[in-house]
Amino acid sequence: MRLSKTHVPTLKEAPAEAEIPSHILMVRGGYLRKVAAGVYSFLPLGWRVIQKISRIIREEMTRAGAQEVFLPAVIPGELWQESGRWDVYGEQLLRFKDRKGADFVIGPTHEEAIVDLVRGDVRSYRQLPLNLFQIQTKFRDELRARAGLMRGREFIMKDAYSFHATDEDAQREYQFMYDTYTRIFNRCGLAFRAVEADTGAIGGSLSHEFQVLAETGEDALLACDSCGYAANVEQAKARPPAAAAPSAAALEKVATPGKRTVEEVTAFLGLRPENLVKTLLHLADGKPVAVLVRGDHNLNEIKLKRELGARDLVLASDESVEDATGAPVGFAGPVGLGTPIYCDLEVCAMPSCVCGANVADAHYKNVVCKRDFQPTVCGDFRDAAVGDACPRCESGHLVGYRGIEVGQVFFLGTKYSVPMKCNFLDADGKEKPMIMGCYGIGVTRVAAAAIEQNHDKDGIVWPVAIAPYEAALLSLQVGDPQVTEVAERLYAELGKAGIEVLYDERDERPGVKFKDADLIGLPYRIAVGKKGVAEGVVELKARRSPEVHKVKIEEVVRVVREKVVAERAGGGA
Ligand SMILES: [Zn+2]
User: What's the gap in Å between 397 CA and the centre of ligand 1?
Assistant: First the structure.
């Protein structure tokens, strides 16, 4: 494609609201324009990237036996009422009425619509399994949509849903989709990890997230340095500690005047944070509960909430803490406390600890779990942390990463098929609910994540597989007949060799062309200049590397073709 004939309006400055690299570079590089908060138009370059990602997904899903369908974006509200999500999905669900007053939603996800489709036509175990997917626009009414494609309100998603007669078959498909996703993100040329995840609003019992690794990622991940274990911090398990023999020393009250925080108390008593236990009062559905975690650990509210089975969990107000403990905030402790006590396993394993004494300006020393207080439940209630022993293998330790979630696979079970009566007649003649899985990829988010992972101060550094074009061809002096002759010839030959090339033949200074080429970020750049042409060479540079190579004019097409073909299949950055 000739650059003068395509619409690539590059900008020197990013809009003030753009804060993250992918947003800044997609707007500056002429890929994307904003229409409303979190709603964007794709320009020709941007749409080519989306098409390339979609093609890889489509090929791999089809190869895995899934069939492509296309469901409506507008879905009747009654289907959402039937599944029960009309009431629980909240403000992100964009609802409206048609002219007859009927409720509709713009689909943020399509479980209801697909279940309605399948229950209408699938009656027998002979028609199962079935895996249907689509690549389609979704809408989620995010409150803060400022991160470009990273958290848009309107976005393109690949969503797939599978239906099975048995749990075993659904588990098989889950693993199969996991493997398919691994192939998809490898082919996109991205460095990623599959991590164990919370099932969140979609529901179900088993889930993995596919996370593109990037320092700017909003998700904190922990992965074992020895085995394949990896999980979102919210979900990561801590390995249960080995219990130490409890201390025989007697409980002792010590004065800690005005010392409330972990730092103040440990400094005052000459202890380390891991010798202290924090007593954190919470209200679970309005009722006070105390949680004990070691001074150097963070409470994990998701784990606690799951154990409590509570719908609502909040940190107690100062007033509620005083009511429950009889002491001002900062001196709560489990000894003599009247509320249920949820004790983290690391606390149970301590020989003894220091904690608040439930009176002002005092703490207890030599507190032993199950001797000086009785925990209601001992369990894993803390965030796993960098350096912790791996919960899965013997020798590994956890390492921290940051990631961007681009895909998720869920084992749904019968969460939707039971309320929506999506049943089939089994071989034994009995009617049973179908077992389901669902599998999503944020197509537009993959593009943004690829840039977050692959950019520098000058612009985007696309992996070959999802770059809008594979090479940039720059004519540095368009007024020079010999330069033009060589550039035109290379443009034609690159095209014949099957290389997707963006040919900058605009009447601009070389500096402008080099800047735009770096910003747009195509994997290879061929610059044709007067001096080189006189010597029979052009300059070849990979966007990813600083070196510029002089290559003979008659060899450059072959050299570029070899590099591009080798990288088209992805394989991870
Ligand atoms: Zn491990």
Answer: 7
Query: β-pairing, 362-367 with 154-164?
Result: unpaired
Non-local (6+) Cβ contacts of 496 within 8 A are none
Per-residue model confidence as pLDDT tens digits over 527-563: 999 999 999 999 999 999 999 999 999 999 999 999 9
What is the Å distance from ligand 1's center to 175 Cα? 20
C-alpha of residue 122 to centroid of ligand 1, in Å: 43
CATH fourth-level superfamily of 252-379: YbaK/aminoacyl-tRNA synthetase-associated domain (3.90.960.10)
Query: What is the average pLDDT value for the chain, to the nearest integer?
Result: 94
Average pLDDT, stretch 194-213? 78
Distance 231 CA to ligand 1 centre (A): 11
Q: How confident is the model at residue 151 (pLDDT cuts 50, 70, 90)?
A: confident
Residue 192 Cα, ligand 1 centroid: separation in angstroms?
A: 18
C-alpha to C-alpha distance for 361 and 380, rounded to whole angstroms: 30
Say what the pTM is. 0.85
- Residue 204: what pLDDT? 56
Element of type H or E holding 136: strand 130-139
Helix (H) or strand (E) holding 288: strand 287-294
343 CA to middle of ligand 1, Å? 25
CATH number assigned to the domain with residue range 469-568, chosen from the 4 options 3.40.50.720, 3.40.50.800, 3.20.20.190, 3.20.20.140: 3.40.50.800
Residue 201 has pLDDT above 60, yes or no: no
38, 381, 448 from 217: Cα distances, Å = 18, 25, 11
CB atoms within 10 A of CB 168: 10
Secondary structure (3-state) at 62:
helix
Distance of CA 402 from the midpoint of ligand 1 (Å)? 18
Ligand 1 center from residue 191 Cα (angstroms): 20
The 3-state secondary structure of 349-408 reads CCCCEEEECCCCCEEEEEECECCCECCCEEECCECCCCCCECCCCCCCEEEEEEEEEEEE
Mean pLDDT of 377-391: 93
503 to each of 46, 532, 559, how far by Cα in Å?
17, 18, 18
Distance CA(572)–CA(463), nearest Å, equals 9
Q: Where are the alpha helices (DSSP H) in 70-217?
A: 77-83, 85-88, 111-121, 167-187
Local confidence band at 211 (pLDDT 50, 70, 90 cut-offs)? very high
pLDDT, tens digit, 9 for 90 and up, residues 439-489? 999 999 999 999 999 999 999 999 999 999 999 999 999 999 999 999 999
pLDDT band at 228 (very low <50, low <70, confident <90, very high): confident
499 Cα to the center of ligand 1, angstroms: 43
CA of 415 to the centre of ligand 1 (A): 32
